[in-house]
Amino acid sequence: MTPMTKTQVYLPEEDLRALHRIAKERGRPVAELIREAIRQVWVRPTITGHVALWDGPGSATSIDHDRVIYDAP
After folding, report:
1. Which one-letter DSSP state was computed for residue 42?
2. pLDDT value, residue 51
3. Is 70 exceeded by the pLDDT of residue 73?
4. Would you state the pLDDT for residue 40?
5. Which three-class secondary structure state does DSSP give residue 49?
6. CA-to-CA distance for 67 and 35, rounded, in angstroms?
7. Inter-residue contact 61 to 72 (CB < 8 Å)
């Protein structure tokens, strides 16, 4: 199990109700949804290159997409 530190977060009642509803619908704990949201919005991995999956040269435009992908040496 990953070591964790307990913290408190103050949420508006309507947000907390919505969060509990979503957690129940998905069968997941509220804390897990909060941790997931934090990772996705604030602690996401650094994206490098022109597109997250591409770390090559960026000399072509989107019009040249197929040529760059399929004709590359």
Report:
1. T
2. 55
3. no
4. 86
5. coil
6. 41
7. no
Round to whole Å and give the CA distance between 35 and 59. 38
Amino acid type, 11: L
Tokens of 57: 């040269």
- Report whether 11 contacts 19 (CB < 8 A): yes
Q: How far apart are CA 47 and CA 26, in angstroms?
A: 29
For 11-67, the pLDDT digits (tens) are 999 999 999 999 999 999 999 999 999 988 888 766 655 555 655 666 666 667 677
Residue pointed to by tokens 């989107």:
62
Q: Tell me the C-alpha distance between 66 and 12, whole Å.
A: 48
Tokens of 8: 């408190």
